[in-house]
Specification:
Elements lengths: L4 H11 L1 H5 L3 E5 L4 E6 L13 H23 L3 E12 L6 E6 L2 H14 L3 E10 L5 E13 L6
Antiparallel strand pairs: 1-2, 2-4, 3-6, 4-5, 5-6
Length: 155
């Protein structure tokens, strides 16, 4: 799979339709960071007229997960990935366009190299910060990703 906005957003439609239909979209991906956007709309709001926390979580998770996916793909090794825990902090009502950014690709590189060299699974804690159009933080997420080499029986 190519790691372009178009390919990842098509992936969302096919594999994560709840994220796609609530407006979660990859905005930008580089070797070091990923930015995911979502706009507060009727379909993704909570009863308090702001972005539902579950939608924020999907966007934040994608900003971390797409970096892990890209690094695994680039390595050429059969590595599995799974979220093992998540923490979130909500600091302001999320209204308008919200951008979630993860810029911790260096942590992924280190953990991936170690799991390939040693064969042992690794845990990576990646952060994603959601900001509104004014640049004010609305939420902050931390996802713990587990990565490990796939065995021949579960490829």
């Amino acid at each position: 799979m190519e790691f372009t906005k178009r390919h990842i957003n098509r992936f969302l439609l096919l594999k994560l339709p709840s994220a796609y239909f609530t407006g979660v979209r990859l905005h930008q991906i580089t070797e070091q960071s990923a930015v995911v956007k979502v706009r507060h709309r009727w379909i993704n709001q909570n009863p308090f007229r702001s972005l539902y926390y579950g939608v924020q979580s999907m966007a934040a998770e994608l900003s971390t997960g797409v970096l892990v996916m890209k690094k695994i793909y680039t390595s050429g090794k059969p590595v599995s990935m799974l979220v093992t825990s998540q923490n979130a902090l909500f600091t302001k009502k999320a209204r308008g366009l919200i951008m979630f950014t993860c810029d911790q690709a260096d942590l992924i590189d280190t953990a991936l190299q170690k799991t390939i060299e040693t064969g042992e699974g690794q845990l990576i804690r990646l952060k994603s910060k959601g900001v509104d159009e004014k640049g004010e933080q609305v939420s902050a997420f931390e996802f713990e990703w587990s990565i490990k080499l796939k065995s021949k029986s579960n490829k």
